[in-house]
Amino acid sequence: MSAKRILIVDDEAKMRRILELSLKSMGNTVVEASDGMEALSIVEKQPIDLVLTDLRMPRMDGIALLAALREQGVDVPVIVMTAYGTIDTAVAAMKLGAIDYIIRPFEMETVEMAVTRALAMQAAQRENRFLREEVSRGWGEFVGTSAAMQSLYELIRQVAPTRSNAFIVGDTGTGKELVARAIHEASGRTGLFVPINCAAIPAELLESELFGHVKGAFTGAVRDRVGKCELASGGTVFLDEITEMPAHLQVKLLRVLQEGCIERLGSNGTIPVDLRVVSATNRDLQQAVESGALRRDLYFRLNVVRIDVPRLRDRHGDIALLANHFLHKHALELGRATPRLMSHVLQRLESYEWPGNVRELENIMERAVVLCRSGEITLAHLPAELSSESPGRSSSSSALADDPAIDGPLDLKARVEGLECRLIKAALERSANNKAAAARLLGISERTLWYKLKMYKVGS
Ligand SMILES: Nc1ncnc2c1ncn2[C@@H]1O[C@H](COP(=O)(O)OP(=O)(O)OP(=O)(O)O)[C@@H](O)[C@H]1O
Ligand SMILES: [Mg+2]
Protein backbone atom coordinates (compact mmCIF):
# COMPACT_ATOMS: atom_id res chain seq x y z
CA MET A 1 0.00 0.00 0.00
CA SER A 2 1.37 3.45 -0.86
CA ALA A 3 2.23 5.94 1.90
CA LYS A 4 -0.84 7.34 3.63
CA ARG A 5 -1.20 10.56 5.55
CA ILE A 6 -2.48 9.81 9.03
CA LEU A 7 -3.64 12.43 11.51
CA ILE A 8 -3.07 11.59 15.19
CA VAL A 9 -5.27 13.54 17.58
CA ASP A 10 -4.33 13.26 21.26
CA ASP A 11 -3.74 15.76 24.03
CA GLU A 12 -0.85 13.75 25.43
CA ALA A 13 2.38 14.52 23.59
CA LYS A 14 3.96 11.26 24.77
CA MET A 15 1.15 9.19 23.31
CA ARG A 16 1.38 11.05 20.02
CA ARG A 17 5.10 10.32 19.89
CA ILE A 18 4.63 6.58 20.41
CA LEU A 19 1.92 6.36 17.77
CA GLU A 20 3.93 8.48 15.38
CA LEU A 21 6.94 6.17 15.56
CA SER A 22 4.84 3.12 14.99
CA LEU A 23 2.83 4.51 12.09
CA LYS A 24 5.93 5.94 10.44
CA SER A 25 7.62 2.58 10.67
CA MET A 26 4.69 1.23 8.61
CA GLY A 27 5.63 3.73 5.90
CA ASN A 28 2.99 6.37 6.59
CA THR A 29 3.29 10.12 6.88
CA VAL A 30 2.07 11.48 10.21
CA VAL A 31 0.42 14.78 11.10
CA GLU A 32 -0.42 15.69 14.69
CA ALA A 33 -3.08 17.68 16.54
CA SER A 34 -3.61 18.07 20.27
CA ASP A 35 -7.40 18.40 20.19
CA GLY A 36 -10.46 18.27 17.94
CA MET A 37 -10.33 21.93 16.97
CA GLU A 38 -6.81 21.70 15.71
CA ALA A 39 -7.62 18.43 13.94
CA LEU A 40 -10.54 20.00 12.14
CA SER A 41 -8.49 22.87 10.81
CA ILE A 42 -5.82 20.44 9.57
CA VAL A 43 -8.41 18.29 7.77
CA GLU A 44 -9.74 21.40 6.09
CA LYS A 45 -6.33 22.36 4.78
CA GLN A 46 -4.71 19.15 3.67
CA PRO A 47 -5.72 15.74 2.40
CA ILE A 48 -5.83 13.18 5.22
CA ASP A 49 -6.36 9.47 4.59
CA LEU A 50 -7.10 8.40 8.16
CA VAL A 51 -7.73 9.99 11.54
CA LEU A 52 -6.72 8.26 14.77
CA THR A 53 -8.23 10.15 17.66
CA ASP A 54 -8.43 10.06 21.42
CA LEU A 55 -11.93 10.53 22.80
CA ARG A 56 -11.26 12.64 25.87
CA MET A 57 -9.54 15.90 25.06
CA PRO A 58 -9.92 19.54 26.10
CA ARG A 59 -11.68 22.11 23.83
CA MET A 60 -13.17 19.68 21.33
CA ASP A 61 -13.32 15.97 22.18
CA GLY A 62 -13.34 13.01 19.81
CA ILE A 63 -17.14 12.76 19.65
CA ALA A 64 -17.50 16.42 18.75
CA LEU A 65 -14.77 16.01 16.15
CA LEU A 66 -16.62 13.09 14.53
CA ALA A 67 -19.84 15.08 14.50
CA ALA A 68 -18.12 18.08 12.93
CA LEU A 69 -16.46 15.96 10.24
CA ARG A 70 -19.78 14.40 9.40
CA GLU A 71 -21.55 17.71 9.31
CA GLN A 72 -18.95 19.09 6.92
CA GLY A 73 -19.29 16.03 4.74
CA VAL A 74 -15.61 15.10 5.14
CA ASP A 75 -15.25 11.53 3.98
CA VAL A 76 -12.28 10.29 6.00
CA PRO A 77 -12.13 7.11 8.08
CA VAL A 78 -11.75 7.72 11.83
CA ILE A 79 -10.48 5.25 14.43
CA VAL A 80 -11.16 6.23 18.04
CA MET A 81 -9.04 5.30 21.04
CA THR A 82 -10.95 4.82 24.25
CA ALA A 83 -10.05 3.86 27.80
CA TYR A 84 -11.16 0.53 29.18
CA GLY A 85 -14.50 1.05 30.93
CA THR A 86 -15.76 3.74 28.57
CA ILE A 87 -17.06 1.38 25.94
CA ASP A 88 -20.34 3.30 25.77
CA THR A 89 -18.51 6.28 24.36
CA ALA A 90 -16.86 4.04 21.77
CA VAL A 91 -20.31 2.82 20.74
CA ALA A 92 -21.49 6.42 20.40
CA ALA A 93 -18.45 7.11 18.25
CA MET A 94 -19.23 4.16 15.97
CA LYS A 95 -22.77 5.44 15.59
CA LEU A 96 -21.36 8.75 14.47
CA GLY A 97 -19.47 6.99 11.73
CA ALA A 98 -16.15 5.95 13.29
CA ILE A 99 -14.80 3.01 11.34
CA ASP A 100 -13.24 1.20 14.34
CA TYR A 101 -12.18 1.64 17.97
CA ILE A 102 -9.18 0.58 20.03
CA ILE A 103 -9.27 0.08 23.77
CA ARG A 104 -6.47 1.44 25.93
CA PRO A 105 -4.02 0.29 26.99
CA PHE A 106 -3.13 -1.36 23.70
CA GLU A 107 -0.28 -3.16 22.01
CA MET A 108 1.18 -1.34 19.00
CA GLU A 109 0.28 -4.33 16.91
CA THR A 110 -3.41 -3.72 17.59
CA VAL A 111 -3.12 -0.17 16.33
CA GLU A 112 -1.26 -1.24 13.22
CA MET A 113 -3.84 -3.87 12.41
CA ALA A 114 -6.72 -1.46 12.91
CA VAL A 115 -5.06 1.13 10.67
CA THR A 116 -4.36 -1.37 7.89
CA ARG A 117 -7.91 -2.67 8.04
CA ALA A 118 -9.45 0.80 8.03
CA LEU A 119 -7.41 1.93 5.04
CA ALA A 120 -8.30 -1.21 3.09
CA MET A 121 -11.98 -0.80 3.91
CA GLN A 122 -11.91 2.80 2.84
CA ALA A 123 -10.28 1.92 -0.47
CA ALA A 124 -12.83 -0.80 -1.14
CA GLN A 125 -15.73 1.49 -0.32
CA ARG A 126 -14.42 4.21 -2.57
CA GLU A 127 -14.02 1.76 -5.38
CA ASN A 128 -17.50 0.37 -4.89
CA ARG A 129 -19.06 3.77 -4.88
CA PHE A 130 -17.14 4.72 -7.97
CA LEU A 131 -18.24 1.56 -9.71
CA ARG A 132 -21.82 2.03 -8.67
CA GLU A 133 -22.11 5.66 -9.61
CA GLU A 134 -19.78 6.10 -12.53
CA VAL A 135 -18.97 2.87 -14.18
CA SER A 136 -21.87 0.51 -13.73
CA ARG A 137 -24.63 2.90 -14.67
CA GLY A 138 -23.86 6.13 -16.39
CA TRP A 139 -23.92 9.77 -15.46
CA GLY A 140 -26.75 11.70 -13.82
CA GLU A 141 -30.00 10.64 -15.44
CA PHE A 142 -28.16 8.85 -18.21
CA VAL A 143 -27.72 5.13 -18.32
CA GLY A 144 -24.85 3.95 -20.51
CA THR A 145 -21.12 3.48 -20.13
CA SER A 146 -20.06 2.97 -23.75
CA ALA A 147 -17.19 5.06 -25.07
CA ALA A 148 -19.66 7.03 -27.19
CA MET A 149 -21.70 7.96 -24.11
CA GLN A 150 -18.60 8.77 -22.07
CA SER A 151 -17.57 11.32 -24.68
CA LEU A 152 -21.10 12.71 -24.70
CA TYR A 153 -21.02 13.19 -20.89
CA GLU A 154 -17.64 14.87 -21.18
CA LEU A 155 -18.85 17.22 -23.88
CA ILE A 156 -21.94 18.15 -21.84
CA ARG A 157 -19.77 18.87 -18.79
CA GLN A 158 -17.53 21.10 -20.90
CA VAL A 159 -20.26 23.01 -22.69
CA ALA A 160 -22.78 23.40 -19.86
CA PRO A 161 -21.08 26.13 -17.82
CA THR A 162 -20.34 28.29 -20.88
CA ARG A 163 -23.00 30.59 -22.24
CA SER A 164 -22.72 29.14 -25.73
CA ASN A 165 -25.83 28.01 -27.53
CA ALA A 166 -25.83 24.31 -28.25
CA PHE A 167 -27.43 22.29 -31.03
CA ILE A 168 -28.30 18.68 -30.28
CA VAL A 169 -28.53 16.37 -33.25
CA GLY A 170 -29.62 12.75 -33.10
CA ASP A 171 -32.22 10.25 -34.23
CA THR A 172 -35.57 9.98 -32.55
CA GLY A 173 -35.54 8.56 -29.03
CA THR A 174 -31.77 8.83 -28.57
CA GLY A 175 -32.14 11.11 -25.54
CA LYS A 176 -31.84 14.64 -26.95
CA GLU A 177 -34.19 16.11 -24.40
CA LEU A 178 -32.25 14.40 -21.62
CA VAL A 179 -29.08 16.02 -23.00
CA ALA A 180 -30.76 19.43 -23.05
CA ARG A 181 -31.85 19.06 -19.43
CA ALA A 182 -28.40 17.87 -18.40
CA ILE A 183 -26.85 20.94 -20.02
CA HIS A 184 -29.18 23.16 -18.03
CA GLU A 185 -28.62 21.25 -14.78
CA ALA A 186 -24.85 21.47 -15.11
CA SER A 187 -24.88 25.08 -16.30
CA GLY A 188 -25.26 26.69 -12.90
CA ARG A 189 -27.90 28.96 -14.40
CA THR A 190 -30.52 29.70 -11.78
CA GLY A 191 -33.49 30.33 -14.09
CA LEU A 192 -35.89 27.78 -15.48
CA PHE A 193 -35.48 25.08 -18.10
CA VAL A 194 -38.28 25.76 -20.57
CA PRO A 195 -38.89 23.28 -23.40
CA ILE A 196 -40.91 24.15 -26.50
CA ASN A 197 -41.74 21.63 -29.18
CA CYS A 198 -41.90 23.73 -32.33
CA ALA A 199 -43.51 20.90 -34.30
CA ALA A 200 -46.33 20.14 -31.91
CA ILE A 201 -47.63 23.68 -31.53
CA PRO A 202 -49.81 24.99 -34.38
CA ALA A 203 -48.01 27.73 -36.33
CA GLU A 204 -50.54 30.40 -35.46
CA LEU A 205 -50.07 29.82 -31.73
CA LEU A 206 -46.32 29.39 -31.74
CA GLU A 207 -45.49 33.09 -31.92
CA SER A 208 -47.39 33.96 -28.77
CA GLU A 209 -46.08 30.80 -27.11
CA LEU A 210 -42.51 31.94 -27.78
CA PHE A 211 -42.76 35.67 -27.19
CA GLY A 212 -45.99 36.21 -25.26
CA HIS A 213 -48.69 38.77 -26.02
CA VAL A 214 -50.58 41.63 -24.45
CA LYS A 215 -54.29 41.72 -23.91
CA GLY A 216 -56.14 42.48 -27.14
CA ALA A 217 -53.16 41.65 -29.39
CA PHE A 218 -55.43 39.36 -31.41
CA THR A 219 -58.90 37.88 -31.14
CA GLY A 220 -58.95 35.68 -28.11
CA ALA A 221 -56.05 37.42 -26.34
CA VAL A 222 -58.12 38.24 -23.30
CA ARG A 223 -55.20 38.84 -20.96
CA ASP A 224 -51.46 39.44 -21.04
CA ARG A 225 -49.36 36.36 -21.45
CA VAL A 226 -45.70 35.76 -20.73
CA GLY A 227 -43.90 33.90 -23.53
CA LYS A 228 -41.60 30.95 -23.01
CA CYS A 229 -38.50 32.93 -23.98
CA GLU A 230 -39.23 35.46 -21.27
CA LEU A 231 -39.94 32.66 -18.82
CA ALA A 232 -36.57 31.09 -19.60
CA SER A 233 -34.62 34.28 -19.02
CA GLY A 234 -31.72 33.47 -16.70
CA GLY A 235 -32.25 29.80 -17.50
CA THR A 236 -32.37 27.73 -20.67
CA VAL A 237 -34.92 27.60 -23.46
CA PHE A 238 -35.02 24.28 -25.29
CA LEU A 239 -36.23 24.65 -28.87
CA ASP A 240 -37.11 21.11 -29.87
CA GLU A 241 -37.68 20.31 -33.56
CA ILE A 242 -36.47 23.79 -34.44
CA THR A 243 -36.54 23.08 -38.20
CA GLU A 244 -40.34 23.05 -37.94
CA MET A 245 -40.43 26.68 -36.84
CA PRO A 246 -42.04 28.85 -39.54
CA ALA A 247 -39.61 31.15 -41.37
CA HIS A 248 -41.03 34.45 -40.10
CA LEU A 249 -40.63 33.27 -36.48
CA GLN A 250 -37.06 32.24 -37.19
CA VAL A 251 -36.39 35.83 -38.26
CA LYS A 252 -37.99 37.10 -35.08
CA LEU A 253 -36.06 34.68 -32.90
CA LEU A 254 -32.82 35.72 -34.53
CA ARG A 255 -33.58 39.34 -33.72
CA VAL A 256 -34.28 38.44 -30.09
CA LEU A 257 -30.95 36.66 -29.84
CA GLN A 258 -29.07 39.53 -31.45
CA GLU A 259 -30.66 42.24 -29.38
CA GLY A 260 -31.11 40.41 -26.10
CA CYS A 261 -34.67 41.60 -25.66
CA ILE A 262 -38.14 40.52 -26.67
CA GLU A 263 -41.34 42.26 -27.57
CA ARG A 264 -44.63 40.67 -26.56
CA LEU A 265 -47.12 40.50 -29.42
CA GLY A 266 -49.14 43.68 -29.63
CA SER A 267 -46.81 45.65 -27.38
CA ASN A 268 -44.28 48.33 -28.34
CA GLY A 269 -42.16 47.94 -25.25
CA THR A 270 -39.16 45.62 -25.14
CA ILE A 271 -38.16 43.36 -22.26
CA PRO A 272 -34.50 42.43 -21.77
CA VAL A 273 -33.86 38.69 -21.59
CA ASP A 274 -30.79 36.66 -20.69
CA LEU A 275 -31.21 33.62 -22.92
CA ARG A 276 -29.27 30.43 -23.38
CA VAL A 277 -30.70 28.47 -26.26
CA VAL A 278 -30.38 24.74 -26.70
CA SER A 279 -31.94 23.49 -29.94
CA ALA A 280 -32.57 20.00 -31.22
CA THR A 281 -33.52 18.18 -34.36
CA ASN A 282 -33.68 14.60 -35.51
CA ARG A 283 -33.30 15.66 -39.13
CA ASP A 284 -30.15 15.97 -41.16
CA LEU A 285 -29.07 19.41 -39.96
CA GLN A 286 -26.99 20.29 -43.02
CA GLN A 287 -29.81 19.37 -45.32
CA ALA A 288 -32.30 21.37 -43.26
CA VAL A 289 -30.11 24.43 -43.71
CA GLU A 290 -29.60 23.82 -47.43
CA SER A 291 -33.30 23.28 -48.06
CA GLY A 292 -34.10 26.48 -46.17
CA ALA A 293 -36.08 24.72 -43.40
CA LEU A 294 -33.64 26.37 -41.00
CA ARG A 295 -32.39 29.86 -41.85
CA ARG A 296 -28.65 29.94 -42.25
CA ASP A 297 -28.15 33.07 -40.11
CA LEU A 298 -30.18 31.58 -37.27
CA TYR A 299 -28.36 28.29 -37.64
CA PHE A 300 -25.02 30.05 -37.08
CA ARG A 301 -26.35 31.63 -33.90
CA LEU A 302 -27.75 28.38 -32.54
CA ASN A 303 -25.07 25.97 -33.60
CA VAL A 304 -22.15 27.35 -31.61
CA VAL A 305 -21.53 23.90 -30.19
CA ARG A 306 -22.92 20.84 -31.91
CA ILE A 307 -23.68 17.79 -29.82
CA ASP A 308 -24.33 14.49 -31.59
CA VAL A 309 -26.25 11.87 -29.65
CA PRO A 310 -25.32 8.33 -30.72
CA ARG A 311 -27.90 5.84 -31.98
CA LEU A 312 -28.60 2.86 -29.77
CA ARG A 313 -27.45 0.38 -32.40
CA ASP A 314 -24.06 2.08 -32.40
CA ARG A 315 -23.54 1.39 -28.71
CA HIS A 316 -24.48 -2.24 -28.23
CA GLY A 317 -22.65 -2.38 -24.93
CA ASP A 318 -25.31 -0.20 -23.31
CA ILE A 319 -28.30 -2.30 -24.27
CA ALA A 320 -28.06 -4.72 -21.33
CA LEU A 321 -27.68 -1.87 -18.85
CA LEU A 322 -30.57 0.09 -20.32
CA ALA A 323 -32.85 -2.94 -20.61
CA ASN A 324 -32.29 -3.87 -16.97
CA HIS A 325 -32.67 -0.26 -15.90
CA PHE A 326 -36.07 -0.01 -17.58
CA LEU A 327 -37.18 -3.41 -16.30
CA HIS A 328 -36.37 -2.28 -12.80
CA LYS A 329 -38.01 1.11 -13.26
CA HIS A 330 -41.29 -0.26 -14.55
CA ALA A 331 -41.40 -3.19 -12.13
CA LEU A 332 -41.02 -0.67 -9.33
CA GLU A 333 -43.87 1.38 -10.73
CA LEU A 334 -46.08 -1.68 -10.83
CA GLY A 335 -44.97 -2.76 -7.37
CA ARG A 336 -43.47 -6.02 -8.67
CA ALA A 337 -40.10 -7.69 -8.28
CA THR A 338 -37.77 -6.94 -11.19
CA PRO A 339 -37.99 -9.82 -13.67
CA ARG A 340 -34.84 -11.43 -14.97
CA LEU A 341 -33.76 -10.99 -18.55
CA MET A 342 -32.86 -14.36 -20.07
CA SER A 343 -29.59 -14.29 -21.96
CA HIS A 344 -31.04 -15.39 -25.30
CA VAL A 345 -33.51 -12.51 -24.98
CA LEU A 346 -30.68 -10.09 -24.35
CA GLN A 347 -28.92 -11.43 -27.43
CA ARG A 348 -32.02 -10.70 -29.45
CA LEU A 349 -32.18 -7.18 -28.05
CA GLU A 350 -28.55 -6.65 -28.90
CA SER A 351 -28.95 -7.69 -32.52
CA TYR A 352 -32.03 -5.57 -33.19
CA GLU A 353 -31.77 -2.33 -35.17
CA TRP A 354 -33.63 -0.05 -32.72
CA PRO A 355 -35.09 2.51 -35.13
CA GLY A 356 -36.80 4.17 -32.13
CA ASN A 357 -33.62 4.02 -30.03
CA VAL A 358 -33.81 4.28 -26.22
CA ARG A 359 -37.47 5.26 -26.23
CA GLU A 360 -38.35 2.11 -28.17
CA LEU A 361 -36.29 -0.02 -25.79
CA GLU A 362 -38.06 1.53 -22.82
CA ASN A 363 -41.51 0.90 -24.35
CA ILE A 364 -40.63 -2.69 -25.10
CA MET A 365 -39.30 -3.31 -21.59
CA GLU A 366 -42.36 -1.71 -20.04
CA ARG A 367 -44.59 -3.95 -22.11
CA ALA A 368 -42.52 -7.00 -21.14
CA VAL A 369 -42.85 -6.21 -17.42
CA VAL A 370 -46.61 -5.90 -17.78
CA LEU A 371 -46.90 -9.19 -19.67
CA CYS A 372 -44.42 -11.16 -17.59
CA ARG A 373 -45.90 -13.29 -14.83
CA SER A 374 -43.10 -15.72 -14.16
CA GLY A 375 -40.25 -13.46 -13.06
CA GLU A 376 -38.35 -14.22 -16.26
CA ILE A 377 -38.54 -12.28 -19.50
CA THR A 378 -38.64 -14.61 -22.50
CA LEU A 379 -39.03 -14.03 -26.23
CA ALA A 380 -42.77 -14.44 -25.78
CA HIS A 381 -42.86 -11.15 -23.90
CA LEU A 382 -41.35 -9.24 -26.81
CA PRO A 383 -43.32 -7.74 -29.71
CA ALA A 384 -43.36 -9.53 -33.05
CA GLU A 385 -40.55 -7.56 -34.68
CA LEU A 386 -38.21 -8.79 -31.95
CA SER A 387 -39.49 -12.25 -31.19
CA SER A 388 -39.69 -13.39 -34.83
CA GLU A 389 -36.78 -15.23 -36.41
CA SER A 390 -35.33 -12.29 -38.35
CA PRO A 391 -34.49 -9.59 -35.87
CA GLY A 392 -34.12 -6.07 -37.18
CA ARG A 393 -36.91 -6.48 -39.69
CA SER A 394 -39.95 -4.45 -38.89
CA SER A 395 -43.37 -6.05 -38.94
CA SER A 396 -45.12 -3.12 -40.52
CA SER A 397 -44.43 -4.15 -44.11
CA SER A 398 -47.37 -6.48 -43.56
CA ALA A 399 -49.61 -3.43 -43.36
CA LEU A 400 -49.74 -3.45 -47.14
CA ALA A 401 -49.04 -7.09 -47.93
CA ASP A 402 -52.61 -8.27 -47.76
CA ASP A 403 -54.06 -5.08 -49.16
CA PRO A 404 -56.34 -5.84 -52.12
CA ALA A 405 -55.14 -2.79 -54.01
CA ILE A 406 -57.50 -3.00 -56.90
CA ASP A 407 -60.36 -5.13 -55.61
CA GLY A 408 -63.51 -3.43 -54.42
CA PRO A 409 -65.04 -0.08 -55.35
CA LEU A 410 -62.81 2.37 -57.19
CA ASP A 411 -63.73 5.42 -55.11
CA LEU A 412 -60.42 7.26 -55.30
CA LYS A 413 -60.83 9.59 -52.32
CA ALA A 414 -62.07 6.90 -49.93
CA ARG A 415 -59.47 4.37 -51.08
CA VAL A 416 -56.58 6.82 -50.89
CA GLU A 417 -57.63 8.02 -47.46
CA GLY A 418 -57.98 4.44 -46.29
CA LEU A 419 -54.46 3.69 -47.48
CA GLU A 420 -53.11 6.91 -45.96
CA CYS A 421 -54.66 6.02 -42.63
CA ARG A 422 -53.15 2.54 -42.70
CA LEU A 423 -49.73 3.91 -43.62
CA ILE A 424 -49.92 6.34 -40.72
CA LYS A 425 -50.81 3.54 -38.33
CA ALA A 426 -47.95 1.44 -39.65
CA ALA A 427 -45.52 4.34 -39.21
CA LEU A 428 -46.70 4.91 -35.65
CA GLU A 429 -46.29 1.25 -34.87
CA ARG A 430 -42.84 1.13 -36.37
CA SER A 431 -41.72 4.21 -34.43
CA ALA A 432 -43.16 3.05 -31.10
CA ASN A 433 -45.83 5.75 -31.31
CA ASN A 434 -43.31 8.56 -31.59
CA LYS A 435 -44.90 11.26 -33.72
CA ALA A 436 -41.68 12.91 -34.89
CA ALA A 437 -40.24 9.59 -36.02
CA ALA A 438 -43.48 8.52 -37.67
CA ALA A 439 -43.66 11.81 -39.57
CA ARG A 440 -40.13 11.24 -40.78
CA LEU A 441 -40.91 7.74 -41.98
CA LEU A 442 -43.90 9.12 -43.85
CA GLY A 443 -41.90 12.00 -45.27
CA ILE A 444 -44.30 14.63 -43.94
CA SER A 445 -43.90 17.31 -41.28
CA GLU A 446 -44.90 16.51 -37.73
CA ARG A 447 -47.49 19.22 -37.92
CA THR A 448 -49.09 17.61 -40.98
CA LEU A 449 -49.08 14.31 -39.11
CA TRP A 450 -50.87 15.83 -36.12
CA TYR A 451 -53.42 17.29 -38.48
CA LYS A 452 -54.01 13.94 -40.18
CA LEU A 453 -54.22 12.09 -36.87
CA LYS A 454 -56.96 14.43 -35.84
CA MET A 455 -58.68 14.04 -39.18
CA TYR A 456 -58.61 10.24 -39.06
CA LYS A 457 -59.08 10.15 -35.30
CA VAL A 458 -56.02 7.93 -34.92
CA GLY A 459 -54.00 7.36 -31.71
CA SER A 460 -53.61 9.93 -28.96
N1 LIG B 1 -29.04 7.26 -21.96
C1 LIG B 1 -30.27 7.18 -21.44
N2 LIG B 1 -30.46 6.66 -20.23
C2 LIG B 1 -31.70 6.55 -19.70
N3 LIG B 1 -32.80 6.94 -20.31
C3 LIG B 1 -32.69 7.48 -21.52
C4 LIG B 1 -31.43 7.62 -22.17
N4 LIG B 1 -31.62 8.19 -23.37
C5 LIG B 1 -32.94 8.37 -23.49
N5 LIG B 1 -33.59 7.96 -22.39
C6 LIG B 1 -35.05 7.97 -22.18
O1 LIG B 1 -35.65 7.64 -23.43
C7 LIG B 1 -36.76 8.47 -23.70
C8 LIG B 1 -36.52 9.25 -24.97
O2 LIG B 1 -35.54 10.25 -24.75
P1 LIG B 1 -35.73 11.74 -25.30
O3 LIG B 1 -37.15 12.17 -25.19
O4 LIG B 1 -34.71 12.60 -24.66
O5 LIG B 1 -35.38 11.47 -26.82
P2 LIG B 1 -35.29 12.48 -28.05
O6 LIG B 1 -33.97 12.31 -28.65
O7 LIG B 1 -35.66 13.85 -27.57
O8 LIG B 1 -36.38 11.91 -29.05
P3 LIG B 1 -37.27 12.68 -30.17
O9 LIG B 1 -36.34 13.06 -31.28
O10 LIG B 1 -38.22 11.63 -30.61
O11 LIG B 1 -37.91 13.84 -29.50
C9 LIG B 1 -36.95 9.34 -22.48
O12 LIG B 1 -37.89 8.73 -21.63
C10 LIG B 1 -35.58 9.36 -21.84
O13 LIG B 1 -35.65 9.56 -20.46
MG1 LIG C 1 -37.33 15.01 -28.02
List keywords for this structure.
binds magnesium ion; alpha/beta; single chain; transcription; Rossmann fold; 5-stranded parallel beta sheet; 460 residues; 4 domains; binds adenosine-5'-triphosphate; 47% helix
What is the compact description of this entry?
The protein is of the alpha/beta class and 460 residues long.
Q: How would you characterize the overall build of this protein?
A:
- With 460 residues, the chain is of the alpha/beta class.
- It has 4 domains: 5-134, 3-Layer(aba) Sandwich (Rossmann fold), CATH 3.40.50.2300; 142-310, P-loop containing nucleotide triphosphate hydrolases (Rossmann fold), CATH 3.40.50.300; 313-393, Helicase, Ruva Protein, domain 3 (Orthogonal Bundle), CATH 1.10.8; 396-456, Arc Repressor Mutant, subunit A, CATH 1.10.10.
- The protein is built from 20 helices and 18 strands.
- It has helices at 13-25, 36-45, 62-71, 87-95, 108-135, 147-159, 176-185, 203-211, 228-231, 247-259, 285-290, 296-302, 319-334, 343-351, 357-371, 384-387, 398-401, 412-430, 435-442, 446-456; strands spanning 5-9, 29-33, 50-54, 78-83, 100-104, 138-139, 142-143, 166-169, 193-197, 212-213, 225-226, 236-240, 261-262, 271-272, 277-281, 305-308, 340-341, 376-377.
- The strands form 6 sheets. The chain has a 5-stranded parallel β-sheet, sandwiched between helices. It has a 5-stranded parallel β-sheet with strand order 9-12-15-8-16. The protein has a two-stranded antiparallel ribbon with strand order 6-7.
- Helix 2 packs parallel to helix 3.
- The longest helix is centred in the N-terminal third of the chain and has 28 residues, at 108-135.
- The radius of gyration is 31 Å and the shape is elongated.
- The relative contact order is 0.08.
- Residues 391-403 have low confidence and may be disordered.
- Adenosine-5'-triphosphate (ATP) binds next to strand 7, helix 7, helix 15 and helix 19.
- Residues 142-144, 170, 172-178, 282, 358-359, 362, 434, 436-437 line the site of adenosine-5'-triphosphate.
